[in-house]
Amino acid sequence: MTAISIRNLSKNFGNKRALDNVSLDIERGEMVALIGASGSGKSTLIRHICGLELGHSGQGKVDVLGSAIQDSGRLTARARQMRRNIGVVFQQFNLVGRLSVLSNVLLGNLGRIPSWRGTLGLFTAEEKRAARDALARVGIPEVAWQRASTLSGGQQQRAAIARTLVQRSDILLADEPIASLDPSSARRVMEILAAVNRDEQITCVVSLHQVEYARRYCPRTVALRNGRIVYDGPSSELTNQMLVELYGANSEELILPEAPVQPVKPKRVVEPRHVPAFA
Ligand SMILES: Nc1ncnc2c1ncn2[C@@H]1O[C@H](COP(=O)(O)OP(=O)(O)OP(=O)(O)O)[C@@H](O)[C@H]1O
C-alpha cells in the first residue's frame, strides 16, 4: 500500500518557488531520506505531507494511506483525523520544556482521548505504562520525571520519537532531527528511527543535511533542488560526484569533510523509479 502519494504539488512564498510540481510515491514501511542544500524545499515538503502547509490553489494533491489530506490547495474534511496518524519530529521546539518528559510523551495520546482528559492531564495507568515503555524503547527511561528543558538535544529528539510511538502513528516525518546534534547523538537518533521503521513498520521520511546519514540509515533518497526532485533512488548510488554535479558549491553542505569525492561509477541499467531525475 502506498503510504504517501504526492501529485503535482507546487508552492510559492511570494516570488520564491519552494516546491515545483513535485510528484512522489512512498510505499508503506519505507525509510526515505529527503536531502538537499539549504532552501531546497525539504521542510516545505514535509509540512505539506502533514497538512501544515497548503499547495497552490486549484492544483496538486497529497494522499496519506489512501486518503487525501489536501487536494487542490485545500485541506480535506478528514485532514484533522488523518493527522493523528502522522507523527512529526522537528529539529527544535519538540517538547514543552516546563513539563516532565513523561508528560510530554503522554501528549502523544491527545488525538485519541477526549480533550477534557488531555487538558486536565488525566491519563490512565495503561497510557502511563505505554509512555514509560516508549521512553525505554528509545533508550532514556531514566529521564521520565525530569523537566524536558533539562534534556540534551539528542535526548529531546528521542523523547519526541517516544511521543510518536505513543501516538501510534503509521507515518513518522522527521524534519532535520539531527541538524543540531553532535555526531554520536545524531547516530543514536538515526539508529532509533531506523529501528522504529524496521520493528514497528512505521513509514519514515527524514530530512537530512548530510548524505552520509542517508546512505547509512535510509535505503532510498529523494534529493531536492530549488523545490524540484532531482534524484530519487537508492541512497547507496547517490555518489558525492553526483552531488557536486547537482548542487555545485552547495554540495559542501551535504558531504561530510572526511568523505572523499568518489569516482563516477559507470552508468548501469536500473529500474525506472530509480533513474536519477536530473533537472
Ligand atoms: N513561511 C515561509 N515564508 C516565506 N518563505 C518561506 C517560508 N517557508 C519556506 N520559505 C522559503 O522556501 C524555500 C524552501 O524552504 P525550506 O525551509 O523548505 O527549505 P529546506 O530545504 O528545508 O532548507 P533548510 O535545510 O535550510 O531547512 C526557501 O527559499 C525558504 O526561504
TrEMBL record:
A GO MF term: ABC-type phosphonate transporter activity
Keyword flag GTP-binding: no
Domain ABC transporter: 4-251
GO cellular component, one term: membrane
Domain of life, per lineage: Bacteria
Keyword flag Cytoplasm: no
Residues forming coiled coils: none
CDD domains for this protein: ABC_PhnC_transporter (cd03256)
Keywords of this entry: ATP-binding, Cell membrane, Membrane, Nucleotide-binding, Translocase, Transport
Family, similarity comment: Belongs to the ABC transporter superfamily.
Protein name per the record: Phosphonate ABC transporter ATP-binding protein
Organism: Pseudaminobacter soli (ex Zhang et al. 2022)
Higher taxonomy: Bacteria, Pseudomonadati, Pseudomonadota, Alphaproteobacteria, Hyphomicrobiales
